[in-house]
Description:
Layout: H1 7-10, H2 18-31, E1 38-39, H3 41-47, H4 54-58, H5 63-74, E2 82-83, H6 84-94, H7 100-110, H8 119-134, H9 140-150, E3 157-158, H10 160-168, H11 179-189, E4 197-198, H12 199-210
Antiparallel strand pairs: 1-2, 3-4
Helix pairs in contact: 2-6, 2-7, 2-11, 8-11, 10-11
Amino acid sequence: RTFCGTRARAMSTPPLSGARRGILRRAFQKLDLDHDGQLTASELRSSFSGLADNRVQSGELTETQVFAELLSELLPDGSQHILQDEWEEYFASKHATLSDDAFCTKISRMWGGLPFVTQKRVDGLEAKLLDSLSSQGAEREVLTRIFRKYDSNEDGLLQLDEFEQFCGAFGLSQAKCSSDEIRALFERYDLDDSGELAFREFSAAMLRQAE
């Protein structure tokens, strides 16, 4: 599907970062009330807030008008629903010029105040994790041994809950950071968007930071 006004932008739209992809996924899941993997007009309206649009704040347009405009772009040509990949494609192109934090703020405000973590905060968490790992020697052999300790089924992958245990052992306990913050860090490393963290993804990030 080609969305209205997005064809030219799509030519130069960069891949979604972990932060952008994460908040778009959470928004989609929140709106998908019947869990059928697609969004209808009524589902979109259920959590939409026009306050993210400056034209509503200025009084130029009403929230109803802004939603109708958005709907015409998300569901063009009489479409009855939008799929998750189309949803991500639309917003990736529509707001490609925004910084990650500005993008996440906009999506959060547009769809009912979804939680998100600023990139500055994720940078800080990553630095703490690296410092803790460095105390044991941030070398591939050390990282391999530590990673395997939390890879419960020995498949070379960490699920989010396993990654949270891993982080807790290296300075990022629940007393110091929230589950949302750990998830944001997880999304940064999950480069292939698999929902699982491969050792190669994590070690590449840690070794690059240590250089």
